Every structure is written in C-alpha cells, then in structure tokens.
Amino acid sequence: MKHLTKDHSLFGIDLIDELVEDYFQLDTGGEDISNFAGDTKVFDYLIDEADCDELQEAHNLSDSEQLPIIIANNLHSEQEDKLLHVLRLHKKAIGWKLSNLPGINPSIYMHRILMEEEAQPIRQQQRRPNLTILDVVKKEVTKFLAAGII
C-alpha cells in the first residue's frame, strides 16, 4: 500500500478569504456595514407573529421607480417610518429583479437544455421500476405520508 508523501491540497484553502477580499475589494470594517448592522433591529418588527393575512400594507420605496414592498399591518407609525427609512437607505442592496443583481452571470440562474441543431424534442413513455424497486418506493412514500412530508 502506498501512502501519499506530499499533499498540497490543504495549502490552497488558507488564501481563499484573502483572495476573495482582494478580488472584490471588500472592506469588512466599513462604516456603512456597521450602520446597517445597527439598523437591522428595525427588521425584528416585520413578521414575528404576523400571519399572511396581516401582510396588507404595500408601499413604494421610490417615486420614480417601481420598488414595491409589503410590510406587516400591525406596526406602529413610528416603527413603520423607521423601517421605510432603513429600506430607502439600502434599496440598492435589494435585488428587485434578476437583472439588478450585479456581478452574477445570467447562466447561473437560467436553465438551458443544450441540444444539437437537428435534434427534435420528443416525449418518451413513462418507465416503470422493477418489482423490488417498486416495493422500496412504496415503503418510502408511505413513510413520508405518515410523517406528513407529502
């Protein structure tokens, strides 16, 4: 039995955080980040005990753009004003559309089926598992039904 004498795979991990920070030019001790972290206390008022029926109030963060948000109905006016103020300050951080997410390649979130040019898409007939696999599948389905997963 041979043992590896040199394993260089562990040394590559040490530099990942530093390289990512250099590439994106991140500043982890920035004033904006600490201010935002302090403002996140306002978000606790959102949906702690609210049902979906209570999410009634719709607001627009900007007059010129359509930036709709829906907040809880049970907020006091002061809490609502604070929440809207924080959201207006940080509205660029929210991805309103997929096209608004900078730096993300569209090929990551788009689904494509690569086919040859002459290929015609066809629907194949449903296949049945063999009897031993069918019993295992039935047991798994009944187990999930009993647990309330499906």
Account of the 3D structure:
The chain is mainly alpha-helical and 150 residues long. The chain has one domain. 35% of the residues lie in helices and 5% in strands. The radius of gyration is 26 Å and the shape is extended. The relative contact order is 0.06. It comes from Mucuna pruriens. This is Reverse transcriptase domain-containing protein.
Identify the notable features of this structure and list them briefly.
150 residues; mainly alpha; 5 helices; Reverse transcriptase domain-containing protein
Helical residue percent band = 25-40%
The domain count comes to 1
Strand order of the largest sheet: 1-2
Cα-to-Cα separation, first versus last residue: 48 Å
Unreliable stretches, pLDDT < 50, 5 or more residues? Answer: 45-51
What is the strand content?
5-15%
**How many strand segments?**
2
Q: Write the H/E string, N to C.
A: HHEEHHH
How confident is the prediction overall: mean pLDDT? 70
The biggest beta sheet is recorded as:
2 strands, antiparallel
Structural class: mainly alpha
Shape: extended
Count of discrete alpha- or pi-helical segments spanning 4 or more residues:
5
Q: What is the C-alpha radius of gyration, as a whole number of Å? A: 26 Å
Protein name: Reverse transcriptase domain-containing protein
Organism: Mucuna pruriens
